[in-house]
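The methods section describes the discrete structure representation at length, but only in general terms. An entry of this sort, consisting of the sequence and the corresponding backbone structure tokens, reads as follows.
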Amino acid sequence: MVDQDKIEAGFRMVLEGLGEDLERPGLRETPRRIAVLFADLFSGLSQTPSESLSLIEGESFDEMIVLKKLPFYSMCEHHFLPFFGHAEHRIYSRQRTG
């Protein structure tokens, strides 16, 4: 669960650490805006891959299934910079799904 109050307080400290004036009109609401943004950016942290990827339930396949150009978006845990791209997933199973 994302704690927007903690994010807002933390980003306020970052801005203060940078020597910014938090009463400047352009920055007054920035810590709150960042907290809302981060809550959205990190909303998928508790989601498992199986929640996003599923085959057709109850079908059987005996050939390769290729999922191409699956978009992904993430955040570098070392620098907290976003990165994104596309992935490809190949599945081969003669078993029935579901």
User: Anything to note?
Assistant: The first strand starts at residue 65 and ends at 75.
